[in-house]
Amino acid sequence: MGGGLAQRVSRSLHAPPVDLRSMDDGTTARVYVPSVVEEDGSPTGLGCFREEATAWRVLRSFLRRTDQMRLERASVVAWELDVIGEHGMTELAHLQARACPVCRRRTMWVDLRQFSALCYGSACEAWIEEHATEANTVDCGWPPTRFFQRCTSPQEAIDALEGVGADVHAHEERSEGTADAALDEEA
Question: The pTM is what?
Answer without folding.
Answer: 0.71
